[in-house]
Design brief:
By secondary structure, the protein is of the alpha+beta class. It contains 19 helices and 9 strands. 48% of the residues lie in helices and 13% in strands.
Length: 367
Amino acid sequence: MLVRYGADDKGRPVEKAKIYTKNEHKIPLNQIDDDAVKVISRLKENGFSAFIVGGAVRDLIVGKKPKDFDIVTDATPSRIKKIFRNSRIIGRRFRLVHVFFGQKIFEVSTFRSICDGSVGNAFGTMDEDVMRRDFSLNSLYYDPFKEQVIDYTNGFNDIKKGILKPVISLESIFVEDPVRMLRAVKYSVTTKCKMNRRLKKKITQSAALLSPISPSRLTEELMKIINSGYSKEIVSVAFDTDLYTYLQPAATELIIESRKFEKNYMESLGELDLLVKNNPEARLGEKLIYIIRDFISTLTDWQKEVEHHTATSELYTKTWTQVRNFVLPMNPQRTELEYAIRMVLKSFGVQVKMPRKRIVLPPEVNS
């Protein structure tokens, strides 16, 4: 193991980070996306430092294939944009660069300072950037050319020991960005890194901070849960920590009111996880079936609707409106939600003809 040194206020050398070599971290170089390496190579050729960072490094250490390779550098967004013609700058406040290689997108961010807290947008150094990372397992930097993992926060050992440890203090981590609570729950399940009692208690106490979070951000996090293959476990922990009421308030209310609904809902999530693991490319509408099925079953006696031939397009319109309200604040693509509703009704024996005219929803449902 090597050591990265810096200087204290008096100019004396101090240890800043541990550096793990390939014999220690055992990350196979052939597991690194070739195009991610090209991005880093181009940045280095132009005089900048660049590293793979975050979840990709975590996954590589535990032997999983990363879905994405995020990159961090000391080049500014405008400079990155000049280096890569196949790129665009995104974000208004927190500016990032997306570099495109065919269908693949690599997110390239600039080292950020901690002068404005962990969610500030001022550019900084690597030493500062690491202190903005949410949890130690996401705070590792990997250099594919030197084949080294740089570890400022003991994240490497935390991964090996199965510990979920915040980098930012508990007093500010969730105040500065409440969505980190959802990520903590997700990581604790998907990585098998346990939250200690103090962290779990802090999340429960801070759950209400999610209340003002925009529907778009909550939808993004819900989609990650739905696509994780671990939705049943994640939702269970989110429910226990009072987070799920801000993700799916209507479902939470029904879970509290009815043990039967809770049992059916959790079983449906288990089926969703099997679908995701067996067919990762399944369309979103197929996955949404397992989110809405148990709610739709409570709306009416579907067997009688079939027997009495009352399953009309008007009934579909009413069902659509109720389901749309049920999944709020999640805002999935309309065509996918419509597909899920039709498939659920079909499984109940209901063959509803779609209305010819587009359904016009009340203003509060369109939000």
